[in-house]
Amino acid sequence: MGIRITPSILNADLADLKHEIARIPSADLIHLDVMDNRFVPNLTFGLPMVESIRASTDQLLDIHLMIAEVDRWAPGYAEAGAESVTFHVEASDAPVRLARELRKLGSRASMALRPATPIEPYADLLPELDMILLMTVEPGFGGQSFLDVVLPKLRRTRALLDAHGGDIWLQVDGGISESTIERCVDAGADTFVAGSAVFSAADPDAMVRSLKAQAEAAGAR
Ligand code: DX5
Ligand code: ZN
To answer: What does the pLDDT read at residue 207?
Structure first.
């Protein structure tokens, strides 16, 4: 099982993102949190910022859209050249149509679930998707504590993905650190967002490599 670390720049210096992204060359993708103060009670940045980041780095971009009316806005991020675009299923009127549109525009299509949203109603959508993101905090802010309550859903999602076959990534986001990543590996995650754990470290890239090594070791057990 491949392990990917996708650091979130939410807790980085947002006025100096080009430099901040250059500090984490070991990242598999760069996770960008778009918030609109509607779907979540916080506001970050939108498409113009992502377009500027796209132009400033060759790193792969993993866009996490925490926005309302996502069917309308998500395709623009794929058009901007993001490698992966994640929409929240709670914010989408037509997730199948949206996922197909994202893939047609050349992006990976990814669907996110809040902690209290069950996976089972969406099991039949797996053929349309390249990644499932399970939030392990309530979305909206970096630096929150990991919610163990999501682990049973993570295990059930892993079982659904294994039964489906193929190579759909299973990402967790929120409170991922050296003290929580192994629980997520054990429950079946393979792709890990880490924001504060990476950017509060003295050497962010060393933390990315260390989280990856720790997850790989846990996966091999
Ligand atoms: C929270 C965001 C996360 C956040 C993670 O709603 O989706 O990506 O930046 O930050 P940490 O790792 O600090 O929980
Ligand atoms: Zn995120």
So the answer is: 98
